[in-house]
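User: Show me a protein chain along with its predicted structure.
Assistant: Here is one chain, sequence first, then structure tokens.
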Amino acid sequence: MTTTVSRQRASQQACAAAAQVVLLALLTAAAGLGPVAWAAGLLYAAALWALLDTAARRAGTASLGPADLVTLARAALVGGVLTLVVDGAGAAPVAAVASVALLLDAVDGPVARRTGTVSALGARFDMEVDAVLLLVLSAYVAGWLGPWVLAIGLLRYAWVAAGRVLPWLRGELPVRRSAKVVAAVQGIVLVAAVAGAPGWVVAVSLALLVWSFGQSAVFLWRAR
């Protein structure tokens, strides 16, 4: 039974990989992706497959749930954003694909709760997809606003790296609504910046993100 369900997960991931290729083909037809962008997209799809498969095995997850499949679809869209950014595409296609990915971000959580399939793997998967999207969008926006915008995409990875040196940063954090709101705002603001929003809006968003990380650091320092 476990083998059969594991094959089901492999089939689900294979369909996602095929969808990634189809998306790349559609973006090529619409925006003229070059070979470097294709290479980036295929490498992203391979890395996504490997990392998700490894995480699912460690979590003992033999089949992806409905919410995980929504997140997987969103991950494929993030791969599309990545290829567009690597290709140096215009703002319109980047904003369009990223907007769809952000809309799906509001779907997987409710789906998980309604179907009773909330899991640590699903939450982590959702978080990692969000992090990659922010990193890619911040790199794109940094092209005209300046390298400081990269801080939006790099802060989370810097936090993880710091946690390897400072164990107390790996402590359990309470659920804070403000942290969720600030995190959600980052993607919206970056897409708005792609569409032409002024730099000060991005700066305010970054300040809120720094404040949110600071709140978490203070809490963990006091609870160490």
